[in-house]
Structures are given as structure tokens and as C-alpha cells.
Specification:
Blueprint: H1 3-16, E1 19-28, E2 31-38, E3 44-50, H2 53-63, E4 74-80, E5 83-89, H3 96-99, H4 104-123, E6 126-127, E7 136-138, E8 144-146, E9 153-154, H5 172-175, H6 182-199, H7 210-218, H8 220-225, H9 233-239, H10 250-256, E10 259-263, E11 268-272, E12 279-282, E13 285-288, H11 294-303
Organism: Trichomonas vaginalis (strain ATCC PRA-98 / G3)
Protein name: AGC family protein kinase
Domain Protein kinase: 22-260
Length: 304
Amino acid sequence: MSCLKMMSELTQVLNDHSYNVIKPMFSIGQNTYIEVQHRQHNQFFVCKITESPKIFEIENKILSRISHKNIIKVFEKFQEKQFNFTILEHFMPVSLEKIGVIPKEQIRMYSLQILCALEHCSSYGIYIGNLSPKTIFIDKYGMIKFVDFQHAMLIPKRYCTRFSITTQFPAPEIVQGIPFNPKAADMWSIGIILFYMVNGTYPCKEFTNAEEYMASVENIKSIFQFNEDMLHADILINLFQTDPNIRATLEDVRKVFGLVTIKLQRKSLEVNKTCVEVAIRRRAKVRPVHLNSYAEVKSYFNSV
């Protein structure tokens, strides 16, 4: 099917569901993203389209289990002809990769949001699989959004034996075909993301074949020998440990950014270590404000 004919069919299907196509946005793997507007509600959304029923099923199964401000929300889904449509909340087509080098304070805010979202996924036994600067986006409010879950899976056990390469910079143990801990593999991806935010480049070559990639990974150590003053160098070195058993954990990275968990009766409160509790006076009563990231803490203090 030609691109023109396919787009015409997609437009017709969306039109039948009261959505006007605004413009194509981008593609990630087998997923295509299009900006749409609902005619009745006059709201903008992003429509994700995939031809693979399996990916459609996996993503919607994953997203139905989790709800987090830094994970994209699903509003509607439907299947017609050979296409599968998922209507998502609107976000800007701006990935961390497009931004490049990020100022120090923003690195802190983005990192805390990424860590909170990753921990949320991990608590539900979800391995994302393709976490990278290309798959993390920012909405119009400057909030991080995990958008793409086409390679995600539920991990009932500690180790995984699915060795497909789902990102350009996979953890070494996946390339080597060693049964791997998905949490440790995601922490390798966190290292890739943090390094990119600090430097605007990647620490190693993209994966093309195992031998070249592993040689490139071994050279990562030399980067820090010549750049001792690099921002967050200490934690990056630990995130790039080729041995997953000694690689930095999510808790290690949380401590670097001063993120602590305060246990409340109903839920945990994620805040910067300098803030224990924020309260506001409402109707002559003091009520706690639940702030789930450093970004929210900063935003709140800027507003009062």
C-alpha cells in the first residue's frame, strides 16, 4: 500500500471516530504518531497507530496496569481494518534527544521524574526494554512523558532470557546472551539517558554487531579518565558497569539526586530531601500537598 493511500485510509477511520488529523508527528519502531483533534470536545490528542496486533495488545495491557503523571495516558483505543489506534494525551514531539545538552538544574528535575516513572513501572514488574533519549518526551508543561511501550513486558521472575535488541544502546549482558536482570538492564539505559543529558552525545556507538558494540562499551571508562570534572561522573561510572551485579541501582541514583520517600498512611510521598512536608491553609484547615517529584516541589514554591 502506498503511503498516500494508507494516510487516506487512516484519515477516514479517524474521521469516523470524530477525530480530525492535524499532522504526522514521528515514528518509533512500528508505531506511528499523529496529532489529532476531537471535533466535539475541541481537544488535541496524539493518535498512536500500529499495524501489529501483538504490539497493540502488549502496550495496552501494560498501560492499563499503571497510572503515573510521567507515563502517557490512554483515552481511547479501537481497531479497524488492519490498523490499531490508541488515542493518547497530547504531548509535544520533543524528545530528550532533540533537546541535546540540558542545563544542570533541568537535568535534576528531568532525572527525578524519570526515576519516579521507572520505579513505578518496576513496582508493577514492568521492564520497559527501549528506554532511551529517543523515547522520552516532554509535554507542554515541561513534564517528562514515557510514551513508547512496544518492547515492554511483564517480568514474573528475577531473570529474563529474551535477548532481542530493542534499543540502540542495549545493556552488555543482553548483547552477550546472558540471562539478565531487567531492573539492572533498565539502569544501564538510565546511564545512557543521563550521559546524553549532560553531554548531548552518546557514550558509545550504536549497536550494529556484538563485537564492535562491546569494544565501544569497554571504551566508556576512558571517557571519564579524560573528563574527571564531568557532571555526575561518579554515578555514571557506576551505571556503566558491565557487570550488572555491581551496577548502580535505582536507589543509588535516587540518593544522588536527593530523592527520598516519606511513608504516609495511604501513599508514599516523593520529595526533595530539603522538603519534608508542605501544607496550605484551606477553609481554616491545614491540608498536606502531595508532591510527587522535585519538579512539583519547585513549581509549588514558585507559586506561593
